Amino acid sequence: MATPAAAGAPGAPAPPRSRKSVTGTRKTVAALFLLPALVLLGALVVYPIGYSLVRSFYDQSGDGFAGVDNYKALFTDDGIRTALKNNIIWVVFAPTVATALGLIFAVLTERVRWGTAFKLVVFMPMAISMLAAGIIFRLVYDQDPDKGVANAVWVGVHDTFAQASAFPKAHPGRDSPLRADQGGFITRTPVRAGTPVALPLVGVAPDQMPDDAKKAVRAQPEDGKVTGTTWQDFTRGKGVGTLGAPDPSEVGYPGMRIEAVKDGKVVASTKAAADGTFSLPAKADGAQLRLPASNFKEAYNGLDWLGPSLVTPSIIGSYIWMWAGFAMVLIAAGLAGVPRELLEAARVDGASEWQVFRRVTVPLLAPVLAVVTVTLMINVLKVFDLVFIIAPGSSQDDANVLALELYRKGFSEDQPGIASAIAVFLLLLVIPVMWFNVRRLRREVRR
């Protein structure tokens, strides 16, 4: 039998101790501290997931078992199929473009002194809530160029190359010598040289007349030329003025284009002066005078950014505006850890900056780019706020996404079973992406 001395002798095994954690805390104490967090996790995450899974197999009332009927609706309901299609567009384009812009910003800002200030400005939208960003971009995409910034810029660029007409509402009055022709107007009878022609129009509000318009005057006859006047044949006041002849208060149509047409061909053309008078050469004799449709083209009002065809790309643009800064900051952090010796060695070997970027920088940043892209993919699968706020009611069906459809089925249409099925379907879409992200992160930790 071993004595106490022998038990304490050198080489004897030490008596077993109670196991503790790395910090020295007993497991029981650690479990007690974790218990509140576990309760909250179960109440706010595990229970809702389990309840949604169970509820997705029941009908609208929740009393009858519906089987997989709610899941069949995911692929037969037109609204859900549109939402699924739009979610695919979101997942493909939004993370890709945001990550690409973040990479470009992170690389380029390393070369400028004010790079930090630029990063701050690009990252600032992250401080704005989705709701506030949605309200901002609802105004940015307003159809009226006087309100919407996007259309103000677009209309300005368009009008630089294609000036809009100043007379979109102009048209002939009663007893006019003009008749409609291919969007414009043409004289009913041919004109003759030496005989002034009157081309009266109405329909342009006085405050919308060009600033350079002057008092209309009767054209004087010229030998061998066709002369005439085109003007606003309207004078305020009942019984005031004479139809078909310029009155003292009436002004001409400056810049109005007049064409002389013979046998369907334009033989001469000119533009009216500030007082509405014009003159055509002798070859216009015997022709009909036409005011082409270009004179009456409606003013360009920009694009319908929130219409059915552009609403989804427009909302994706607002998302990229918010999240490109997030991608830039993470990629810039990864770029800071890239060994500069490799970049310099590539330059010494004769590589151009584009080759260094494509063959060295991007491969070294591949893990960071993957994490950023996958994180944004998870984020866009759940996008709701921007679509709900920016898309108007007339095109919300065209901009629909799964998260918004979940809200509409659950609250607007009172179909909690289908809403729960959409929630479970979204969870199934997110899980593989999350698994990929976690696996990559663990791989990086092992390195």
Q: What string gives the helices and strands in order?
A: HHHHHHHEEEEEEEEHHHHHHH
Structure classification: alpha+beta
Strand order in space, largest sheet: 1-2-8-5-6
Sheet having the most strands: 5 strands, antiparallel
**In percent, how much strand structure appears in the residues?**
5-15%
> Level of helix content?
40-55%
Gross morphology is: elongated
Cα radius of gyration in angstroms: 37 Å
Kindly state the number of beta strands: 8
Low-confidence stretches are: none
End-to-end CA span: 52 Å
Chain-averaged pLDDT = 87
Number of helices: 14
What does this molecule look like?
The chain is α+β, with helices and mostly antiparallel strands and 447 residues long. It is built from 14 helices and eight strands. It has helices spanning 4-7, 27-55, 69-76, 78-108, 115-123, 130-140, 149-161, 311-336, 340-348, 353-364, 366-381, 385-390, 402-412, 416-446, and strands at 178-181, 184-187, 197-201, 226-232, 257-262, 265-271, 277-280, 288-291. Helix 11 runs antiparallel to helix 14. The radius of gyration is 37 Å and the shape is elongated. The relative contact order is 0.13. The mean pLDDT is 87.
